[in-house]
């Protein structure tokens, strides 16, 4: 899979981001080409069900740029959806996730490769618990990994208690997103010790004031023996954040973040974080 952006978005549309939709196919192609030009090989798109994934366009984009794309099923926080969709029963959600993982997303012919769900700020509300139960059921049926949005990087241990404790998902099948947004090394270490993967993503966002601490946090985790649990992603969610629209975008991860991390962790460790670790994290382990 080459160098892997472990969490990003080519397409994303939410009522919470009016006027900032990622929905332009040509700009998505240009962004992938820019990412490929700096050495990018694969993008894992975490856009779940109902948020404008445009799965039918992913094959042509991959063919045009040479960048592999992993699509997602799953459900985000309730605020991104209509009340009716947000309230869908766990059994119905699980059936949807399994169908998109095994048969395809709509009529696109594209099968999802991961299940994306989301927690809240320091808590798991009823919606999060319902969607995580559905995700766990779909994981057990298909072997697909579960990727989790953590609001401002919080609640990782609660997620692990639910998914890996009560719902019996193996920790190495869980990817904990946005942990750079809450630089709590104690929580990060405990999460890494569980065997889950920790995604440090969104480093190009100026409004995330903790991002400058990311190299120190990752170096501390690597020194503690958890380098094999670390992932990197860009998490581009708005049109203005794309590099081809004047923002940092996907190339920033390799142009600016990688050299900075190499100074803290060493080139070999960063190479592993960008290649071998995500290749394992997003593998599908059929049961």
Automatic annotation (TrEMBL):
Domain of life: Bacteria
Keywords carried by this UniProt record: Hydrolase, Metal-binding
Membership in a protein family: Belongs to the metallo-dependent hydrolases superfamily. Phosphotriesterase family.
SUPFAM superfamilies noted in UniProt: Metallo-dependent hydrolases (SSF51556)
Cross-referenced PANTHER family: PHOSPHOTRIESTERASE-RELATED (PTHR10819), PHOSPHOTRIESTERASE-RELATED PROTEIN (PTHR10819:SF3)
Name of this protein: TatD family hydrolase
Residues bearing the modification N6-carboxylysine: 116
GO molecular-function terms, A-Z: hydrolase activity
């Amino acid at each position: 899979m080459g160098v892997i952006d472990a969490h990003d978005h080519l397409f994303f549309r939410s009522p919470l981001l009016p006027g900032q939709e990622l929905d332009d196919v040509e700009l998505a192609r240009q962004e992938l080409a820019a990412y490929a030009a700096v050495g990018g090989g694969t993008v894992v798109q975490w856009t779940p069900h109902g948020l404008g994934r445009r799965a039918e366009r992913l094959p042509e984009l991959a063919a045009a740029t040479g960048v592999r794309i992993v699509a997602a099923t799953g459900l985000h926080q309730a605020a991104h959806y209509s009340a009716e969709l947000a309230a869908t029963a766990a059994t119905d959600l699980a059936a949807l996730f399994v169908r998109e993982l095994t048969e395809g997303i709509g009529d696109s012919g594209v099968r999802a490769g991961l299940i994306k769900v989301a927690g809240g700020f320091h808590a798991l509300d009823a919606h999060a618990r319902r969607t995580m139960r559905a995700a766990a059921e779909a994981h057990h049926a298909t072997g697909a990994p579960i990727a989790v949005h953590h609001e401002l990087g919080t609640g990782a241990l609660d997620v692990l208690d639910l998914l890996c404790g009560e719902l019996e998902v193996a920790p190495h099948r869980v990817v904990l997103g946005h942990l750079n947004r809450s630089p709590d090394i104690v929580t990060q270490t405990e999460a890494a010790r569980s065997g889950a993967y920790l995604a440090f993503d969104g480093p190009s966002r100026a409004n995330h004031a903790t991002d400058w601490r990311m190299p120190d946090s990752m170096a501390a985790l690597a020194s503690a023996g958890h380098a094999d649990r670390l992932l990197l992603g860009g998490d581009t969610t708005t049109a203005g954040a794309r590099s081809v629209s004047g923002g940092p975008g996907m190339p920033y991860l390799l142009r600016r973040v990688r050299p900075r991390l190499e100074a803290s962790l060493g080139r070999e460790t960063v190479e592993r974080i960008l290649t071998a670790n995500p290749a394992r994290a997003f593998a599908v382990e059929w049961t």
